[in-house]
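hiii so my PI (J.) wants the whole complex modelled not just the main chain, which honestly fair. so below is everything: two entries, each one labled with what it is. i double checked the lines twice but i was tired so who knows lol
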Amino acid sequence: MPPTSPSRRHLLASMIAASSGLALSPLLAAAPPAPLLTRAIPSSGEQLPVIGLGSWITFNVGRDPQGRRETVDVMRQFFAGGGRLVDSSPMYGSAQDVIGEAVQALKPARLFSADKVWVSGGARGVAQVEASRKLWRVPRFDLLQVHNLLSWEEHLPLLLAMKREGRLRYVGITTSEGRRHAEIEKIMASQPIDFVQISYNALDRDVEQRILPLARERKIGVIVNRPFRQGDLTQALAGKPLPGWGADIGCTTWAQALLKFIVSHPAVTCAIPATSSVAHVRENLLAGTGRMPDEALRKRIAQDVERLA
Amino acid sequence: MSEWWTYSLSDFLMFSSRSYYRLIESYNAAIWPAHLLALVAGIIVIGAIARPRQQMQRVAALVLAAAWGWVAWAYQLERYAEINTAAPYFAAAFAVQALLLCGLAYRPRNTAPAPQRVALGMIALPIFAYPLLALVRDGGTWRQTEVFGIAPDPTVVATLGVLLAWRAPAIFWLIPVLWCLVSGATLMELKIGHAWLLPALALTAVLARVVRSKKPRDLNSTANFRS
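here's the output for the full assembly
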């Protein structure tokens, strides 16, 4: 995420003040925290909060003790705010181990662990999944996805077999930045997968044409990565006032509006913004509460973002 | 991975500038006061260039080889690999360059004229000025300074200066120049202000080498004509 814009800073300052019991208006003080909205995983009906937590770049802090402490704080805030799904990959450097350390420290009761297999050749996939599980310090993964479709023909049968044997709950595939969508569609149409992970935001909307409708039709959950284009989108919008519709859906920042745009799509199960900031986790979780934009407003948000970004 | 053309540099950057500079900071803290030894080593290298003799060349090349070997192991493999999955490959490349420099130590000295001032500048800059970059970078502190013989970038730039002074053959240039491109691209993606510096220094060294390599050939051809 980019540096906080003035309006974002104002919101965050308000939240910090609120959490410390300072400067609360009587009305705000009386208001209970809004619940984090959930969506059903289409293949099972299990409810999942619409805001998850990504770990690309942000959790790759190596052995840095300060970075690891900050990650624990981020995950503590995420779970305290009702979040469940944490997503990582063997491709993300030290992120899996950093998450594992936080899981060990926090012992979250409702963690939904989502990881990936990312290695050429099926035989090495088994060893990689086990290595990843040990790094996460979890008895089993909830969701394993074939990362960027690498060797998917070999990995998918392995993951589906693990699911049948009860060693895994859900199976998925991933892509990012709009790559290999034709192949993604082919797999979605032919394989019994539970999730597809794709990039989607107010500017990158190709998936609205075929992938999101196909996900609904095939009852496949959708996880959305890069909701802010890795920070470029929020940076491009920084300093530009949020249009009047922001207040209608309870948004005070562009980051919230961008997230609401994504999770209000009926095919989307959850978005996974990545951050190393506790304040941003709070802000992201707020985007999963309250009113969501309807179809007409979603179109307008997309138009405004296209115009301003 | 297919569709390589759809990938940009940012797709390969897997860490933040904060993690990167904290890694350098903790590395510096762990090996201090080795930096003082590195400074002495740097001065030896400058001395070898300022007073070109076969024995001094040997000492300087071995000092550089030791620096590359150290960076391969202590930085690339032991630390950078924590946040960059490509670091073990970088470590291997640095180890190869260390071996090449050992070989260079025992090659006969090339006595052909070289751009001595440019070379000396390229060696002095990373040894004395490069550490100061940490202080001018946004959010940087002296704890994050990059020192010759300890961190890869100043070590590579000083090596380019030495290779230039000795008119070393192209094989010795390959890894240092590639590193300048890789590191420059990394810093550019991290949005570091001096990201251009490393590729620019590599280009300067290569151009100086190419220009100089043409001049002696012209002189030789004239001499041959006269004989």
